Batch of 3 targets.
Target 1
Amino acid sequence: MGQTVRRRKGGIGIALVTGVLVVGASACGGGGSDKASGDDAKASVKPSASASPKPTKPAGPPMLLDTITPQTGTTVGVAMPISVIFTNPVAAKARATVEKHMKVSASQPVAGAWHWMGDRRADWRPKTYWPSGTTVKIDADMKGVSNGNGRYGVHGYTHTFKIGDDVRADVSVTNHTMKVTRNGQTVRTLSINAGSAEYPTWNGTMAVIDKQEKVHMTSCSVGISCDKGSPNYYDLTLPWDVHLTQSGTYVHYSTGDPNPGSGSARGSHGCVHLSMSDAKWFYGQVKQGDPVTITGSPRAKAPADNGYADFNLGWDQWLAGSASGEQTTATL
């Protein structure tokens, strides 16, 4: 019987990979490298020695999954990948077999593929966005499967979730606007401010990670400034926060920029600022997995593993990180 990997309180599986945010605090992170921090490909966990596996009782310690996202029973957006995080590194030689034991089914079959973000995280995304209304199921039957490093799976895991309305937000940094559409129809166009020249916002498409009514944000937690005398220092709790990257990008309201738009042209530290009323409205419109696409910033696209920015990779780039290649989902 399949098991469900539960969400850890206060975070999602992706936070375990990148490790960017300080517990209890987060912030708009505009500076730093254009790569996600804490690359799990650099993990130095030494595999345990094991004997050759037997058909019935493989030797070696267990291979376990830390998280599967989305959670079972949830409704998510059209850009949401399936993201599987392993507790221990999976060797390159074992990934094709592991991928084949993580079966993706859908009520509307789509083409897609797995892609490895380092050696502990594998994401499955469709070639293009999911169709709204699709029911998706992942069966990760890991029993007896080797991770190539002396560990063998002992459990099966099953998650089923649904793709909701096609809600998208398109942010133009240069025009100071955010256009919100639902199922192809424009709902509203909002005034925004994005990052400053010193702390530009990431370009590209980032699926919503999660959202919170209030988030404690500090400049120190993302390496901007820990000096209380610095003009870039801040320690604030701000409302209506839609989380885009694990390095600290949010769409939200900021007390330092209460009336964003081309008239104020006040830059953020990398976040997208909305007025209080617009931030509350937007918060109520979006869900995990809805794509927010930002254009016109001088910064590069967010790395695919910096949250759920999977669609920032072209399809050829995506397949280059897959061990088993493109596949069509089984039909539910």
Target 2
Amino acid sequence: MTAGQDFRPHRIVVLALDGLLPFELGIPHRIFGRPRDAGGRLLYEVVTCSVRPPGPVETDADFAVQVPHGPEALETADTVIVPASYELGPVYDEGRLTDELAAALGRIRPGTRLASICTGGYVLAAAGFLDGRPATTHWADADRFQRIFPRVKVDADVLFIDDGDVLTSAGVAAGIDLCLHMVRRDHGTAIANDVARRTVVPPHRDGGQAQFIHRPVPDPQLATTTAARAWALGRLHEPIQLRDMAGQEAMSVRTFTRRFREEVGVSPGQWLTRQRVERARHLLESTGLSVDQVARDAGFGTAQSMRQHLQQALGVTPTAYRRTFRTGADGPGER
């Protein structure tokens, strides 16, 4: 998309269904309502629609929300997001769309990006959008989801899944992670991190992170790995050994590794790689350093090593990533 009069923000249409969760309905508006380009223009336009003409939509709380648009708004969407609902009726019970919902979804143009938060994935699955694809939902619903939709490749152990033009997330806070991921995918790390700071949430939780960690809150009487993580983040450009991180907490390597996984949900090695990928993304976007220098500063050592890790994490080379997000115009960047 070119600048000036041809600029048009990416239009996100949020489908509000009866029984919706107000918190999850608000996530897309909060996350996508913030990003701006260098000229101060909003990069997204977010609107809410119903499957019926404009009017009230019931929530799972003791109030309704007034939705200003009917299903015709779906025809204008670049991205459609379906938040969770607790009153999906035959969609949830039988995996079958109602006539009203089917008619509304039939208005979506081919090629429109689709996303769901939590049980909103039932709607995408019932419409056939997830057939043959990997998808996730809230871990407590995953077994049932798989039984009702056997053609979907359900993964209950992740926060969200990006399958290109269709994205799904687990429940509640994972919806924030998914929306931030979409901003990062569209416009780069710097803009996504700015949104996260303004929203006062962590800037990045990888989609592959576990939904459910058996001890999410460490025993306060036990040492944590917080200091070791802070120590490592300040030295990403240096070789970091597991024993060095464990030494920051005066733990054995075995105890540290177990405690780290309990707190963070991934191994220290996986965590370090993710932090280095994020560091490399930031440097590629915001500096003119050579690819070799970015690789050294991010702790990958060589450009070849960084290239392999970025290909695995993002599906693009460092050069392609920089070209997308340093010159990235006003529309979504490459995946």
Target 3
Amino acid sequence: MSMIRDLRAAVRPSRVPPRKDSGAYDTTRDPASASAVVDCAVYRDGRRVHTDAPLSPHEAMRQVRRDGGFVWMGLHEPTEDEFAGIAGEFGLHPLAVEDAVVAHQRPKLERYDDSLFTVFKTVHYVDHDELTANSEVVESGEVMCFTGRDFVITVRHGGKGSLRALRHRLQDDPELLLKGPSAVLHAIADHVVDGYIAVADAVQDDIDEVETEVFSPGRKGSPRGTDAGRIYQLKREVLEFKRAVSPLLRPMQLLSERPMRLVDPDIQKYFRDVADHLARVHEQVIGFDELLNSILQANLAQASVAQNEDMRKITSWAAIVAVPTMVCGVYGMNFDHMPELHWRFGYPMVLGVTVAICFGIHRTLKRNGWL
């Protein structure tokens, strides 16, 4: 157990920036290059085998079959033609190859003869100064992992979720890499779930902000339902987050509980920790969804209450205005014999009575909370 004592520390992000003056990673290619292959290396006895030139898949496998170790190849959005030769060299199943090229797969774990095919959804929080009805809160990508006895192939889709830093950290821990491809698979799973935890904390802050604004007194404009668009957009982003987290529960459960020939027993124990963290994030996401439902309903209820208050005020003033309207309508008729028509004080008396009635109605409505 001593060789994997610091497993968690090895796969967690480090506060120390990667070394730039070392030649250990000279064969790591720029992901922005025209080639889909980001990196291809052979690892033997827990260390990377350095070469003068980048290795081809065929040359890498030839070295492994001759001298032992395993190959770790990383690709970024390969085309079908680019991946065809690699699939043939490593004996990958056609169905898994099709999923890896097409992408847009839900998280899953599939077993094909002598290999495992795992799909992870990566999620990244999009920073924004202010949450609006059009704000993008989370951005998702995909990492597919083919794991065999002597190889690991990672296929990444999306602009985020680079595994370069993760590879560097693993290369700094030879004892961990001695465990083979399953150690890389665990590191990737842990890296992805750690990203979920960070996104969940950031989304929690956005939800707290919206909740405070909805229920804070004296906010301007929001009783009319102007927050509904922001809440609905945040709910859509949480749904995207949920689609990444929920389907991964079963694969992590299988990796942590069911014995597998391609997963080292010592590494399998640490999948339980990943599964536990994933379950916690899943509970958070479910809570986010329910909380946003409540906030949205409360916001719509506040808008309905505000509209009812407006209607009550309009009705109250209409009742007050109806009194002088009625009096003026009666005295506007052309009749000779009308009450107090020729009396000197008839006009001021009618005005006084009208004002008194309007004042009484206004006071009664105000006492009852209509005004």
